[in-house]
Design a protein that fits this description.
The chain contains six helices and seven strands, in the order E-H-E-H-E-H-E-H-E-H-E-E-H. It is α/β, with parallel strands linked by helices. A seven-stranded mixed beta sheet has the order 3-2-1-4-5-6-7, with helices on one face. Strand 4, helix 4 and strand 5 form a beta-alpha-beta unit. It is globular, with a radius of gyration of 17 Å. The two termini are about 15 Å apart. The structure holds 5-O-phosphono-beta-D-ribofuranosylamine.
Length: about 200
């Protein structure tokens, strides 16, 4: 284990384009002294797992249904992450809501990316296309993406950074989602840099 580098655990459920952006930034040295320790998915068919495999990154599919309850599932998740000596956990399109216990154990070391300008258009049930549908329905002039620390209030933890995009008259939820996703890929990398190397947090475990 190379502890000269900061180690990331990336939790995913879907296509993993944000994961891909992080992999790309590490490969092209935009993100230095950083490595992805592990990618963990709660969905077997998440393309994010394939991306990890293609890049020789350790990856695990952890099926919540293999456990008696969420506590059992998270106990295993916590063990896996602790064993990897991780500095920062990134929720990159991870669809499960983490318990207060989990969040407390990794306090200030979990970040999430959300495809809207929080505190607007966040919270339980606000994910995927639904977010962009609401933004368009509300006739917002701009939207964007937000990274924030994860607390037990869904999408309401301290904001780290945002990138904005205009909402165009001709936008559909799909087109808006696509334009925001491009910004997410920049934001996630900027945020990781900021949190690991600019913030004065002590990550000693
Ligand atoms: C992104 O829009 C992210 O903000 C949200 O889920 C989506 C994940 O996309 N939380 P991907 O799996 O990284 O492509």
């Amino acid at each position: 284990m190379n502890k000269a580098k900061k180690r990331l655990a990336i939790l995913v459920s879907g296509s993993g384009t944000n994961l891909q952006a992080i992999i790309g930034a590490i490969n092209n040295k935009e993100l230095t002294n950083t490595e992805i320790a592990i990618v963990i998915s709660n969905k077997k068919d998440a393309y994010a797992l394939k991306r990890a495999q293609l890049n020789q990154i350790k990856n695990i599919y952890l099926n919540p249904k293999d456990f008696l309850n969420n506590e059992g599932y998270e106990t295993e998740l916590i063990k896996i992450i602790k064993d990897e000596n991780v500095d920062l956990i990134i929720l990159a399109g991870y669809t499960r809501i983490l318990s207060a216990k989990f969040i407390d154990i990794f306090s200030q070391r979990i970040i999430n990316i959300h495809p809207a300008l929080l505190p607007k258009f966040g919270g339980k049930g606000m994910y995927g296309l639904k977010v962009h549908e609401e933004v368009i329905r509300s006739k917002e002039k701009e939207s964007g993406c937000t990274t924030h620390f994860v607390t037990s209030d869904v999408d309401a933890g301290p904001i780290i950074a945002q990138r904005k995009v205009p909402v165009l008259e001709k936008d559909t939820p799909d087109t808006l989602q696509q334009r925001i996703l491009i910004e997410e890929h920049k934001l996630i990398v900027e945020t990781i840099k900021k949190v690991l190397f600019e913030f004065a947090f002590s990550y000693n475990k």
